[in-house]
Structure formats: structure tokens, C-alpha cells
Amino acid sequence: MNFIKEQFANLLRKTADKIESGNCELNEEQAIEIMKMIAHQPLSKEQAVLYLNMSTSKFDALVKMNKLPKGRKRMGFKEKVWYQDELDEYVRIINNE
């Protein structure tokens, strides 16, 4: 494991210990933002469709209309991925229109 990853893992362990002991200085909003960053989950198109509970054709139409993100290519993979937290944000925007 490289140095940065080791430091990150140590920081997460220390923060978890503080949370469990009740000595955490994070407020709820800060904790949610950190969780979103850590939970940046890649989803295949099929997983994204299931996650959003819609048909593939509706998903494709929303992507084409820029109501949902276009998906991203990842190095070493042929398929595009969508990130769960980004889909949540787009859905929040769609629901507020």
C-alpha cells in the first residue's frame, strides 16, 4: 500500500474510533458529505437502471435529454459507469423541476 493510502486508512480508523467513543467533532452535514465522497459507487448501466427503478429506454431517453449523466469510461473497462451519488443528485434536480 502506498504512503497516501496508508495515511488515509489511518485517518479513517482514528475518525471511526472518535465516532464510536462519542468524541467526534463532525456535525451531521459534514458526516453526510464525507460519506458521499467515500460511497462514490460505480454502477453499470443495468445496475443504474435497477437503482433508479426505470426501464432501459427511459434511462437512455433521460441521458439523451441531459436529465441524467452520460456515464463515464474507466481506464481498462469498455463499459461506461454511472455513480450512485451523482444519479441521486440528478434525480433530486428532476424531482424539483
In words, what does this structure look like?
With 97 residues, the protein is mainly alpha-helical. The protein folds into 2 domains: 3-38, no CATH class; 42-96. Helices cover 62% and strands 8% of the residues. It contains 5 helices and 3 strands, in the order ααβααββα. The chain has a 3-stranded antiparallel β-sheet with strand order 1-3-2. A hairpin with a 6-residue loop joins strand 2 (72-73) and strand 3. The longest helix is centred in the N-terminal third of the chain and has 19 residues, at 3-21. It is flat, with a radius of gyration of 17 Å. The model has no long low-confidence stretch (mean pLDDT 88).
How is the topology of this model organized?
Elements: H1 3-21, H2 28-38, E1 42-43, H3 45-52, H4 56-64, E2 72-73, E3 80-83, H5 84-96
Antiparallel strand pairs: 1-3, 2-3
Q: What does this entry show, briefly?
A:
The protein is mainly α.
The average pLDDT value, as a whole number, equals 88
Question: How much beta, percentage-wise?
Answer: 5-15%
State the separation between the terminal residues, measured CA to CA. Answer: 45 Å
Biggest beta-sheet profile: 3 strands, antiparallel
- What Rg do the Cα atoms give? 17 Å
- Low-pLDDT parts are none
Indicate how many domains the architecture comprises. Answer: 2
Number of strands: 3
Q: What spatial form do the alpha-carbon principal axes imply?
A: flat
**Which structural class do the helices and strands define?**
mainly alpha
